[in-house]
Amino acid sequence: MTDFSFPAKKIGDYTVTAISDGYLTASLDLLLNIDRHQASELQQRGGLDDRSPMHINGYLVRGAGRTALVDAGAGGVKHWGGRLKAGLRLAGVRPSDVDTILLTHAHPDHIGGLLDGSGETVFPHAELLVHHRELAFWQDDGNLARANERARGNFQIARKALDAYGGALRTIKEGEVLPGVSAIPLPGHTSGHTGYLINSEDQSALFWGDTVHFPTIQVPRPDASVTLDNDPVRAAETRSKVFEMASSEDLLVAGAHLNERGFARVERSSSGYSITDED
C-alpha cells in the first residue's frame, strides 16, 4: 500500500511523512505567562476553541537506505492517541521495517508508542536515539523522588520504555546522527529536549518536538510557556531562538503538536511571529 493519503514532503534524498497518532486533551490552563482571555482569543483566531484537542504527530523519514521515525506517539497511554502503528501499516511500513527512532524527549505522548499493551517493543529492529541529558534525567532517582504524582507516572512510563530497548538505545549529543540528519539541543521543555534538522540537496526541515504545544498561541507569544516545561524560562528562550532560525532560514518545520497536516512555516514581521500550515 502507498502513503498517498498522508501529508508528505520531499527533502532532498528523504521523504518525510506526517502520521497522526491521534489526540490528547489539554486545557489552556496549562499555559504560563499569558492572560487566559488573550490565550483564548488567539486560539479562536486560529480557528480553534478552548476545548480543541491537541494533535499528536509522528514522522516517518525514509531515504538514504534508512526507515526512521521521529517520536512514537502515545500508543494509547493515558487513553491518548494510539493510531500511529495503524498509520504506518497504511503507509506500507511494518514496525519491523523501522531501523531508527529519533526521540525528541521521553514524555508519554512521544515514548508511549514504543511498547505494546504487553510491554513488548513495537519496533524490534530499531535503534533508539536519545540525548544523553534526557536519559540521565529519567534515570536519576533523585528526580523521581522530587516528582509529584503525575510526574512519577511519567517516570514509570519513560523508564519502562527506555529499559525495554536496552542494548538498542544509543545516547547522542549535538551533531549528525544519520546521514544529513543532525541533533539540535532545544532545552527547557525537558533537560535533553532535542530537535532534528534534515539537510539534503539544499533542502531543509526541522523537527522541533514540543517547542510549542499551542501553535496559535505560542508562536505569536513565544514567552508563553506551559506547566509541562521543566524550565519555563529556558523553554521560552529556546522557542524564540527556534522561531528566529525557522523564519530567517525559511525552514519547513514539523512538530508533534502542529495540526494533522504536520508541517508549517514560521514568518517574522514587525509585529512578531506567525505560523502558516504547509499543504
Polypeptide structure, described:
With 279 residues, the protein is α+β, with helices and mostly antiparallel strands. The mean pLDDT is 95. Strand 15 (263-269) and strand 16 form a beta hairpin. The longest helix has 17 residues, at 149-165. A 7-stranded mixed β-sheet has the order 1-2-4-5-6-7-8. It has 8 helices and 16 strands. The protein has helices spanning 36-45, 84-90, 108-111, 132-139, 141-146, 149-165, 215-218, 232-248, and strands spanning 8-11, 14-24, 31-32, 54-63, 66-70, 100-102, 127-131, 169-172, 175-178, 181-185, 194-200, 203-207, 225-226, 252-254, 263-269, 272-277.
Main traits of this protein?
alpha+beta; Metallo-beta-lactamase, Chain A; 7-stranded mixed β-sheet; 16 strands
Describe how the helices and strands are arranged.
Layout: E1 8-11, E2 14-24, E3 31-32, H1 36-45, E4 54-63, E5 66-70, H2 84-90, E6 100-102, H3 108-111, E7 127-131, H4 132-139, H5 141-146, H6 149-165, E8 169-172, E9 175-178, E10 181-185, E11 194-200, E12 203-207, H7 215-218, E13 225-226, H8 232-248, E14 252-254, E15 263-269, E16 272-277
Parallel strand pairs: 5-6, 6-7, 7-8, 12-14
Antiparallel strand pairs: 1-2, 2-4, 3-13, 4-5, 9-10, 10-11, 11-12, 14-15, 15-16
